[in-house]
Amino acid sequence: MRTIIRNGTVVREGERISADVLTENGTIRRIAPQIDEPADREIDATGCYVLPGFIDTHTHLDLDLTNTVTADNFETGTRAAIVGGTTTVLDFATQDRGMTLQEALDKWHRKADGKSSCNYGFHMAMSEWNEARKAEIDAMIAQGVTSFKMYMVYPAMRVTDGQIYDALHFMERKDCIVGVHCENYDLLNARIRELHEAGRFDPMAHAESRPDAVEAAGVSTLMKTAELAEAPAWVVHVSCEASLDEMETARGRGVEVYAETCPQYLVLDIAQYREPDAEKYIMSPPLRYAHDREALLNALADGSIDFIGTDHCSFTMAQKALGNGDFAGVPNGGAGIQNRAELVYTAAVRSGIISIEKMAALLSENAARIFGMYPKKGVLSEGSDADIVVFDPNVPHTISWKTNLHNCDNSPFEGMPVLGKTRDVLLGGELVVENGTLIKPHCGQYVFRGPSARPRK
Ligand code: URP
Ligand code: ZN
Ligand code: ZN
Question: Ligand 1 centroid vs 261 CA: distance in angstroms?
Answer without folding.
Answer: 12
